[in-house]
Amino acid sequence: MKKLALVLIALVLVTAGVTVAGANPAFADGPSKAVSTKLTLNGVAETQTKGWLSVSATLTTDDGQPLSNRLVTFSRQVDFFGSREISLGTATTDATGEAVLVYQPAQDGRQEVKANFRGDEGYAGAETSNTIEVSEAIERFEPQPALPLASVRKWLTAGVAILVVAVCAVLFGVFATTLWGVWIAGRSLESVRQTAPQPATPAVESSH
Question: Is residue 88 within 8 Å of 176, Cβ to Cβ?
Fold first, then answer.
């Protein structure tokens, strides 16, 4: 009897589990899968501002449906102490699934640009790369052209002449000030001597 009761209980539990799994789509179909996406790098284009370029990428599902309001990260492959990526910036896709980033390249020539969508709860991530050609890049610090040697000599001579005149003027001022001080001191001393009272001369008595 005990064995029969245990068998009946096991059958009830198995039946209940199958019923719950059939009623719940999550159990019936398994865990939900993210929709596959496709990211296409459209290339670069010049802007109205010199030295600035725009790079764009389009994010869609595999069947071509555009995905809006998704963040796309753009980066560039560089060879600096080994191959590595540097970020160019991020852009958000519009209603057509296109994300456009305007940036200023630091170097010209052929460059590998990469676009990346990390994915979210409903859509899988995607990544693509392409080689672009940058015809013109503006350096952050442009060196100034060197002055001609004749101009350097001219300005150097003028500077030395101005310095000599300034030194002579200072020395003359010091000398003139010293002479003026000595003259004023002499006049003051002479004035003091003239105004000082003379000592009285003692009277000499005559003897008769």
Answer: no
Whole-angstrom Cα distance, residue 81 to residue 36?
A: 36
* Residue 106 CB neighbour total at 10 angstroms: 15
Of 27-41, 92-106, 191-205, minimum mean pLDDT range: 191-205
Q: 107 near 121, Cβ under 8 Å? A: no
Give me the pLDDT at residue 49, please.
Answer: 73
What mean pLDDT comes out for the span 39-62? 84
Structure tokens at 32: 């939900």
Task: Report the chain's mean pLDDT, rounded to a whole number.
Answer: 76
120-136 pLDDT, tens per residue? 989 999 999 888 777 66
Cα distance between residue 96 and residue 93, in whole Å: 7
Q: Which residue has the tokens 């305007």?
A: 102
What burial class does residue 93 get, using C-beta atoms within 10 Å of its C-beta: 0-12 exposed, 13-18 middle, 19+ buried? buried
User: Residue 179 is inside which H or E element, if any?
Assistant: helix 149-195
| Secondary structure element (H or E) that encloses residue 74, with its range | strand 71-79
- Is the model more confident about 74 or about 7? 74
- Cβ contacts of 112 within 8 Å, gap of 6 or more: 76, 77, 129, 130, 131, 132
